[in-house]
Amino acid sequence: MPRRVLRPLSVAVLLSALVACDSVTDPPALVEGEFTVNASSAWQYVSLSDSAMVSPGSPRESNSWDIAFFATNVTLNGGAAGPGGVSAACLCQNASATDAQILAMTADSELADFESVTSVPAGLTFTTDVPTPAMSGWYTGTGASATADPSKVFLVRLSDGTSFAKVHVTGITDASAAAFSSVTLEYAVQASSTAAFGATKTIAVNANENVDLNTDAQSVNSPNWDIRLEGTTLLVNSGVTGPGMVGVADGTTTFEATTTASTQPQAYRTDRFAGAFGTAPWYRYNILGDNVISPTFDVYLIKRGSAVYKLQILDYYGETGAPRQITFRYQQIAG
Fold first, then answer.
1. How is 172-204 classified by DSSP, letter by letter?
2. Which of 6, 98, 184, 212 is most deeply buried (CB count within 10 A of its CB)?
């Protein structure tokens, strides 16, 4: 269950009895609070205006939520992600902080930065969420000049959640600004996290078809798929795209030199919607080579209609050290 604090920030105080027939209406109270959400296995949706967790039946069609969390992902109810019109901007006061400075930060030490934000800075640009694929950077150029970049290697957890593959794109066919007719993948599958890679194979992924790397099969409707080509984007079967367990992490060496595609669970990305939290991530990963998520304590402004909230993510780990227990504080500053 979330920890929740709701405190009115602006309350009219009556100091004397009202004259008969006169009435006073208190201004609506602004809200503030602190939540810890268990974002370990599913999206958790929060209504900031209600200071409450909500359970939208169809999040992309629901106005009931403002912000949602899953693993390290943050999504807002606006743009491509939902009908709420929610947008955000990062004040990013710690953007130039060193890794050592980030590691030294705590919720208490960064409270002053949070409290110092009392209004929306002039000229601040708010953005809504857009589709953000897990597999990116695999080609260079645009339109007909787009070419594959084989140096971009991906570590892929496959749809079954137990097998893995190293993957890179070696070719693009019929490139245009709107779509590629196919892309060629070179890949090798390992049956488990401790298994060795099998034989290296290639497959042409045709537009709007699904590929299952475990079976080297391509189809339109099969639910057991890993990668799909739509337009100029490679999608994966997870997150906002599909029900599978595909995760994507960036390789750190060449395709040939990659010896395993199994890595820390928090390193894998899924297809998602992202805006301000995508362009300005709220954490740094693996600063000390320990696979730890370290919050930057940057302050974000979340806007819905005339209401604006400041929000600061404080922790990724629960009281017992369990991951994906995201704690954040927020406070309404306008509207």
1. EES--SS--SEEEEEEEEESSTTSPP---EEEE
2. 212
